[in-house]
Amino acid sequence: MRAVVQRVAFSRVVVQDELVSEIEGGLLVLLGVGQEDGPEDVRYLLDKVLNLRVFEDEAGKMNLSVKDIEGELMIISQFTLYGDARKGRRPSFITAASPEKGQILYEEFVALAEESGLRVGTGKFKHHMGVHLVNDGPVTILLDSKKQF
Fold it and tell me: N or C terminus of the chain: which is more exposed, having fewer CB within 10 Å?
């Protein structure tokens, strides 16, 4: 499971000119599910996201997590994180999970995130979305559950 995590001042998702979700201050998580991912990847990656210390403390150091600041999460499914463009010019997505498996693990990630007590926004799975954000910093972190060790 892969994630691009961005610290944001604001984020919103629009599908077919309809506002689906929006957050203020927190993290935008672009989440990709791979063929070999399972529930253990969901738990590992969510723990990383919730406890990632990318918010500044009173001394100006990045020592606080989204939980510490009681921030919000915007979680967007993005299978293109598994795009492999090493050969040719068109990315291959053969290592991405099937849409069915991807949706199950994405929804599990969202459900567990909601259990954290933080406000969680989402997009619409398998829809073309307009994701708007104001990156705060900018701070952008790449996470991969298969690169734990």
Answer: C
